[in-house]
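Deliverable D5.2: sample structural annotation.
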Amino acid sequence: MSFTPEKVRAQFSALHQCHNGLPVTFFDGPGGSQVPLSVLEEMTTYLGHFNANLGSGYFSSQITTELMSDARRACQALLNAPSPDSIVFGANMTTLTFSLSRAISRSWQEGDEVVVTALDHYANVSSWQQAAEDKSVVVKQAQVKAQDCSLDIDHLLSLITSKTRLVALTLASNMSGSITDITAVIKAAQKVGAQVYIDAVHYAPHHLIDVQQLECDFLVCSAYKFFGPHIGIAYVAPKWIQAIQPYKVEPAPELGPSRFETGTQSFEALAGLIACINYLAQWGDTTMSLRQRLQQSYAVFNHYETLLSEYFLQRLTLLDGVRLWGRNMANSDLRTPTFALTFDSLTPQEVAIALGEQNLCLGSGHFYALGAARQLGLEATGGVVRIGMMHYNTKQEIDRLFDALQELVNR
């Protein structure tokens, strides 16, 4: 099936609703995407017919056990993990990272060092800061490049020493959309034997992840950011699955990824997750493997999102009194279609509220990118207006946004 925005939008009930007599336009994808009907149907089917727990002999328990395995295999394809046994599920990226940080830090010793970044969502900063404090470990933070709101790779590399135990960084900024080339960072970390923990939450809706190519130790993302339900996914490299002692209550499974999973999983969310990954793969050749179909689909997404970014930036040049915080380019290899703006005569909150009254749905603030907001001097002034597009957005929606912004600025 060939990709068109119309074919995409037909699959999302949320995109066709009206509120208070006005159409609804979602520019809040970075905070959570809308969900296609196929995902909703699979979640409802599971809850309506097969709701059970693992490990029993009756039919719905057996279906649930197979569902768990199917979800790991689907995520293996999504991340190109070497094995489904490297896939761990949890409530969300933040919860997974906080839990894994306690397990990973068990072996840290006083005087060891951890490197985090100011570009990251603070789930991938604060978790490590608290773990480091518990172990009397030094935390170093890499800076953001003010001119384009990207990570200062040279500064980060200068912080890695023989004492570094872990480097935590993001593949893409959830505030500015800047994509991080982490190749040099991983090589530098490997040289000193440090682990690399990657936040791919904002990256995953826009680019296909390959953990084997990255050669990272850990990677986390959340399905509700890429058209799925609220569930977190962690990749744990095969060499760490058994080597790391989980931070959880007894009795814990001795083998496999479930040893890192706490409590009963959200099986209905796993059903939705499988459907979500199949939704993402639908623009690929049906005779190919799931991974190959995902590669073909994401290539289509990248092309279309570049067109959206180009159009957005063109319209932005016609609007006075506004500043873009981030890369002023449309190349999908360098940025996602997520844009951070501030206005000369309006606070970010004022803009977000005024647009929200017209059902132009977006947010304002620092979006937990607290380090970047502080370094750039944005925290005290209310952060930024964040406009984030997905492959279900259109040029017509961008026109509607800028017409409203122009009226607001003129007023």
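Annotation notes: The chain has two domains: 5-34+298-410, 40-279. The longest strand covers residues 164-170.
The annotation will be released with the project's public dataset once the embargo ends.
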